[in-house]
Structures are given as C-alpha cells and as structure tokens.
Specification:
Chain A: GO terms for molecular function: S-adenosylmethionine-dependent methyltransferase activity. The complex is a heterodimer. By secondary structure, chain A is α/β, with parallel strands linked by helices. Chain A is built from 10 helices and 10 strands. Helices cover 31% and strands 20% of the residues of chain B. Chain B has one domain: Methylesterase CheB, C-terminal domain (Rossmann fold, 3-Layer(aba) Sandwich). Chain B has a 7-stranded parallel sheet, sandwiched between helices. In chain B, strands 5-6 form a two-stranded antiparallel sheet. The complex binds S-adenosylmethionine.
C-alpha cells in the first residue's frame, strides 16, 4: 500500500523533474492507480518506485500512462451519439469546413465513432478531427485505427442504438483478432499530444468533445480547462462532456445553453 | 467517553449488493427512520447502463433524502447516495465523491470492492460495510479493508438471500461483526 505522503512526493518529483503536473488530480483515483502499479510491477519498496520514476525515462512513460485512466469505447452512451447525429451535425453541415477536437481521446474509439457519424451525414470530406491526449502511446493506437475484434459485437449494438443504419462491419477489416478501421476514416484524423493542464489553445473549433477526463480533475482545474475550451470554440460552437460531467457551476456556464438531456452545450455568445 | 473512543460512531454505511439485493433494499429502506445519523452509500451491480429509473424506484421506498452520487458532491450525514451505473465511485479526503471510468473490477462497474476500499481509506473506523445477496465475489476485499481500518462489517444472512454466494463468500473469508436478516439490519442502522 502506498501512503498519502508518498503520493505527494511522487507528484512533486513528476513536476520538478519531468514537468508533468498532476497536483490537481483526484487523490482517490491516483492512490488506487499508483497502488495498483506498485503491486503489478512488484516494487520491493516505495524508494525503489520513486527512484525509477525519477531516473528511468521509459518507466516514467509507463507510469504516466498507468496512473491516468485510458479506458474507452466506441459509441458509448448511444443516445449521446444519436443527439450528435440529429441535433448537431445538421447545423455543422451548413459550414464550409468542420473542425472537431477530441481532447483526452485515449486510444481513439470515440474519434472513429465520430468519423463514422460524419461519413454517414455526408460531411466527412469537409471535416478534420483533431485527436489529442497526454499519453503518446495511446495516440499511436489512434493513428493505426486497430481495435480488438472481440469488442465489435458490442460496438455494433451501440452503433445501432445510436441511430446507425449500415452494417457496422463494413467500416473495418477483420484480421487476426483485430479490426482495422478504414483508411478513409483515419485520413481525417490529426494526432497530437496535448496536455490540458499546461498546453494552450491551438485552433478554433466547431465542436469540442472532452468526455470522462474532467472527472479526474479538481474543481479549479476543471474550471481552467473549461475556459481553455471556451477560448478554443468558435461562436455558436458545441461543447460535449461525459455523461457525469457538467458546465453547471463553472465560470463559463453563462456562455452556453444545454441542448437537451445529453451533455451537449451550444455556445450562445 | 472511554467507550466512545473504543467504539467510534459510524458516520458512513456502505450497502453493496448484486443479484437479488434490490428486493432486500425494498424491504429495508421503508424501515429506516427519518433522522438516521450516518450517510449511506448504496452500490449495486446493474444490468443496463442507462437505467436511471432505479433512483426513482428507491426514492419511493424511503423518507431519507436520496440521490444518485454526482461528481464532487459532498457526503452529508443522514443522506443516501446511489452509485451511478457504469462508473466506479471513489471518495476524497474532503468527503466528496469522484467518479472513475477505469477498468471493471470483478466484471463490475461500479464495483463494491472499489467503493468499500475508498471508504475505508477516508472514513476508517467510522465505516460500516454491509454485503447483500449476489452471485459473485465482489465486496469481500472491500470488507476486509473496512475491517482492517477498524470499521464494522456485516453480511446479510445467506439463508435469507436470494443469491447467497456473495454474503457467504465474505463470511467464509472474514470475521464478520454481524450476520443479519433485513429487520435486524434496519434495527442496527436506526440505532447508530
Ligand atoms: C477515461 S479516458 C476517456 C476517453 C474517452 N474520451 C472516453 O470518454 O471514452 C481519459 C483520457 O484522458 C487523458 N488525460 C488525462 N489527463 C490529461 C491531460 N492533462 N491532458 C490531456 N489528456 C489527459 C488520459 O490519458 C486518458 O486517455
């Protein structure tokens, strides 16, 4: 078991030595993740773990990857995607060009889901999807667009509940237990590392999705990140959050109007 | 006073269940008094992700203020919180909730073990954990953490459980403080 003080020591090291600032992250989550990694990697002592994190660049990469939560799915919360189809894409479709930012996209299942929606709405050609995350290794998976075949049955069901009419399997090629999604989709995805804690706005977007990332941040950091999104969203743009996240009580809430029951807000200024 | 430090007041009660536990809650909740002292967190394995109706259903059974736990909500005494579906429910030092979308544990999200362990870490000896009917092993590891922190651990009497496996697994592996039927459980909670 890792002690609370030891967590703080690691966070200080991560910042002082490597420039990663996790100090505003949920301690309950960090403690679980670090304890899990500590026993998974069989460290004999905390001192040993600390030494590795301080000095071993390749272990640092693993450490950061494992203490952040990278779980994701295609078409998670189908009603959310249904609302994107019905309420958001028709409006975005009136623009000559569509820019979408997936912040904290993890391995990209959400980004490919979005690309499929755009294709079905006939908008993929004039769209660009920016996929960013803190972890370079998850982004490598976004680039490849290869996901475990075993999950396709469930993804296909969610796709159908999200209003999808096609045969889901037409979007990928199955091979050796993997599903490789069409090049046509990946061609529209631009990948870059971006740390929501320390990096600034890099473009203006029509739709920003940041789902299940803010739950790991404290109130102040949530507010800061929402301001960053606000600054990165064009007028009348859309902001989409995870099903348990909200703009309510944030500094920017007055600039937005929630569309419906889904966690989608329209910028009204 | 001596007595108090040895037997600290329970400030947080966790009730965890899986298959067959809803029936128990339907019987238990109406028996709880309105000015119950501790906060109660209910963690249930649920089948479908989107069933938000469970909270409405439970609220018809109790006079206590009940809500689905939301990210950053403060845990208040005498209030009842239901862990939302498809997230793990964690607790911070300042007694607020954090929702977590990490891997399923024991094929479950929310998992009893995750919330029980988090509670043991923050509320320590002020925690009581109750395990109800269910058909898997989730909860035992969490109860062990509560016990280790000095809290109380309780199992539904397996002979009264629709699915005895889950409480039985805890009983087989841990020294339980109590094994209760529903009425005894209510009596215990009302006297905290
Ligand atoms: C639980 S996943 C969410 C994935 C996806 N958006 C979804 O909802 O299915 C959280 C992601 O946020 C990323 N993340 C955490 N902190 C971040 C930060 N400061 N900047 C950018 N990404 C971050 C993690 O690396 C992880 O991939």
């Amino acid at each position: 078991m890792i002690e609370d003080e030891e967590i703080e020591i690691l966070l200080t090291d991560l910042f002082d030595i490597h420039g990663y600032d996790f100090t505003s992250y949920s301690r309950a989550s960090l403690k679980r993740r670090i304890s899990r990694l500590y026993s998974l990697d069989k460290f004999p002592s905390f001192a040993e773990l600390r030494y590795r994190v301080r000095t071993d660049e390749s272990y640092l990469k693993r450490f950061v990857e494992e203490i952040t939560v990278n779980v994701t799915e295609m078409f998670r919360d189908p009603s959310f995607y249904l609302s994107l189809r019905n309420d958001v894409l028709p409006i975005l479709g009136t623009k000559p060009f569509i820019r979408i930012w997936h912040a904290g996209c993890s391995t990209g299942e959400e980004v490919y889901s979005m690309a499929i929606l755009l294709k079905e709405a006939g908008l993929l050609k004039k769209s660009l999807l920016y996929a960013t995350d803190l972890n370079p290794s998850v982004l490598e998976k976004v680039r490849k667009g290869i996901f475990p075949l075993i999950q396709m049955k469930q993804y296909s069901e969610s796709y159908i509940s999200s209003g999808g009419l096609a045969d889901f399997s037409t979007y990928y090629t199955a091979n050796y237990g993997q599903a490789k999604f069409d090049q046509e989709l990946s061609d529209k995805i631009i990948i870059s590392t971006h740390n929501l804690v320390s990096d600034s706005s890099f473009n203006e977007f029509d739709l920003i999705l940041c789902r299940n990332v803010l739950i790991y941040f404290d109130k102040d950091l949530q507010d800061r990140v929402l301001k960053l999104f606000d600054a990165s969203l064009g007028s009348l743009g859309y902001l989409a959050l995870g099903s348990k996240e909200t703009l309510k009580f944030s500094a920017v809430q007055n600039n937005y109007k929630q569309l419906n029951r889904e966690k989608i807000w329209k910028k009204i200024v | 006073m001596e007595e108090d430090s040895l037997n600290p007041e329970i400030e947080l009660v966790l009730i965890g269940g899986s298959a067959g536990s809803l029936e128990v809650l339907f019987k238990l909740l109406p028996l709880l008094k309105a000015d119950l002292k501790p906060a109660i967190i209910v963690v249930l394995h649920r089948k479908s992700a989107g069933d938000s109706s469970l909270i409405d259903l439970l609220s018809t059974k109790t006079v206590l203020p009940i809500q689905e736990a939301e990210d950053k909500d403060l845990i208040l005494p005498g209030n009842m919180y239901l862990a939302p579906s498809d997230y793990h429910l964690l607790i911070e030092k300042n007694r607020t909730f954090t929702l977590d979308y990490s891997e399923k544990i024991n094929f479950s999200r929310p998992s009893l073990d995750v919330t029980f362990e988090a509670a043991a870490d923050i509320f320590g000896a002020l925690t009581a954990g109750i395990i109800l009917s269910g058909a898997n092993d989730d909860g035992t590891i969490g109860l062990r953490a509560i016990k280790k922190a000095g809290g109380k651990i309780i199992a539904q009497d397996p002979t009264t459980a629709q699915m005895p496996l889950m409480p039985q697994h805890a009983i087989n592996n841990l020294k339980m403080d109590h094994i209760f039927n529903t009425v005894e459980m209510a009596g215990y909670l009302n006297n905290l």
